[in-house]
User: What shape does this take?
Amino acid sequence: MTYKDPLLTYHGKRDFGRTGEPRGRSGGSGAEPRFVVQIHDASTMHFDFRLQVGDVLKSWSVPKGPSTDPGDKRLAVPTEDHPLEYEEFEGVIPEGEYGGGTVIVWDHGTYRPLSHDRRGRPVPFDEALDRGHVTFRLHGAKLRGEYALTRFRGDAGGGKDEAWLLVKAREEGTRKAGRATPDPRRARSVRSGRTLHQVAAEAQGADGR
Ligand code: MN
Assistant: This one.
């Protein structure tokens, strides 16, 4: 890519492991890729799990949502790549449109790709995805730690029956605290603190209905 990072100077002056200042979206060299989990109250309630790979968000629909319990295997059905800016989308998709319903940003942050080959060498994340197995460490406000996504049905770029599992890795020193999976109707946006209901009500108010 010949793309020049407009925040090169800004990034160069800061250590984002030490400062709480925003890293910015343009992803300068050394910036970790982003992830986002949205809750989408469409015809069926689901979570949308998205990982930045290059300049798109690779996306899966996770009906039950990601679990912090390593014993839970969560179905994750691939959906189309989304633009990076989608990470910030929270609001109401009009009824009758594709995905019509309310969306909140439940969690977001960065992730570190962890996939290695059998000899322990790091594998490019997009190649590991093509092969159907990736591991990564999430650094979110809510989700933290290692997760794996594994294709168990269908082929890459696949047909309708392609399906993956999203599973939390077993790790030393992690303790269970509270629910392993949020209740989507009570969960709050990491961006705005609002519930699905509040976002929907405010959008209605803005429409003057
Ligand atoms: Mn969705």
Strands lie at 34-41, 45-53, 56-62, 74-83, 91-93, 101-113, 133-140, 144-153, 163-168. Residues 40, 42, 46, 48, 61, 99 surround manganese (II) ion (CB under 6 Å).
